[in-house]
Design goal:
5 helices; Small_GTP-bd
Length: about 200
């Protein structure tokens, strides 16, 4: 998809604030420093529509982005960030769970995982949660440019094993630096929302 128009529509914390729109939605979930904003910005060819922050854990709301009047990207608060109190974290958890399990417009979740490391407990929980609720999932392994190509297979196997990754799901290697995986990510998203040019 060629993106000319992308804008943030609303930051929501509860269903009452979700946009009233029939547009299909793709949620983006991942650890606080996994490169979610960079992923969004790479996909829409912008430098800073989604703000990249030096302080992880800054996104504390569900941020809805309108992409080409065709779909919404929904940026979910990053998880696994230590400096947030347990009560805060529980609140986010509830907010994310409510959105993921109740939003009819949701077509798939892009689950971003740092390619360099074994998936965190939260990464694994997120994947299992999506499988449990039968929500389509696209796993995107970020920051592949930081790992020598010769070790990609090893890292991919490590991640898939930790997640108990299911073959029917999509697994994409991605780098916001080299733009590797950008086309594959769009293909998977377009397929999820039933978009045909």
């Amino acid at each position: 998809m060629k993106v000319h128009n992308a804008e943030i529509v609303i930051s929501a914390v509860s269903p009452a604030q979700y946009p009233e729109s029939e547009l299909p939605e793709i949620a983006l979930a991942g650890r606080s420093n996994v490169g979610k904003s960079s992923f969004i910005n790479t996909l829409i060819d912008r430098k800073n529509l989604a703000r990249t922050s030096s302080k992880p854990g800054k996104t504390q709301t569900l941020n809805f982005y309108n992409i080409e009047e065709t779909l919404h990207f929904v940026d979910v608060p990053g998880y696994g960030y230590a400096k947030v109190s347990k009560t805060e974290r529980a609140k986010w958890g509830k907010m994310i769970e409510t959105y993921l399990t109740q939003r009819e417009q949701l077509r798939a979740v892009v689950s971003l995982i740092d390619f360099r490391h074994e998936p965190s407990v939260e990464d694994v929980q997120m994947y299992q949660f999506l499988k449990y609720y039968e929500i389509p999932v696209i796993v995107v392994a970020t920051k592949i440019d930081k790992i020598p190509r010769g070790k990609w297979n090893k890292h991919e196997s490590m991640i898939k094993k930790a997640l108990s990754f299911e073959k029917q799901d999509t697994f994409i290697l991605f780098s916001s630096i080299t733009k590797d995986g950008k086309d594959d990510a769009w293909k998977a998203i377009e397929k999820a929302i039933g978009f045909n040019e």
